Amino acid sequence: MPSLYGLKHWYTRRLTFLINASVRHGISPDTWTLVGVIAGALGAGAIALGWWPLAFLLLAARLGGANLDGAVARARGVSRPFGFVLNEIGDRASDLLMMAGLVGLGVRIGAPRATIVALLIAALAATLPTFISLSAAGAGAPRLNGGPLGKTERCLIAVVASAVPSWLAPVAWLLIAGSILTAGARLARAHRLLPSPGPLPEGVSPLGAGPAE
């Protein structure tokens, strides 16, 4: 489905000078993962305070860090499976911090309790697309990304909410509905990509636990 994820490669090309500098100076890809998490944490604070221009810059840096870790690893030829793990942990931590920033904004402006609860539900719902993607990857599918409401869209929505706090309630429900729709789209795509089950070898149980009794 269409999403802002298609801008990732364009954005990464804009950061080529940082990739080249990282190669020249031997900067670890994990450094960029950490930069992304720190920018995400600071961006969450800016969201909570309603400083939306700063939140925009910091969340752009958060996305930049998430792009640079993989790009630098490939450019330096140091890609490793554990780097994928660190990248996912960094992304999830940044996401949760950003959602915490929205909750903090709601508390700061005295939003109704129902809005705060909806934001907390949105924080939980926002984990569903990644949960589907990682589960599918564990089963052998490619790592699924994109929308309609991926991390790039979540960052943009968070900036809009910090600029117009009165929209927090509809923003919460947009995040919930968009996250569920994205999770469903990724699940359907994973179903198409993963191979259909074939006949089991004789003597193997359906659960793969060993010989059938």
From TrEMBL:
It holds the Pfam family CDP-OH_P_transf. Keywords: Membrane, Transmembrane, Transmembrane helix. This is CDP-alcohol phosphatidyltransferase family protein. GO terms for biological process: phospholipid biosynthetic process. InterPro entries: CDP-OH_P_trans, CDP-OH_PTrfase_TM_dom. One of its GO terms (molecular function) is phosphotransferase activity, for other substituted phosphate groups. The chain crosses the membrane at residues 32-59, 116-136, 156-183. One of its GO terms (cellular component) is membrane.
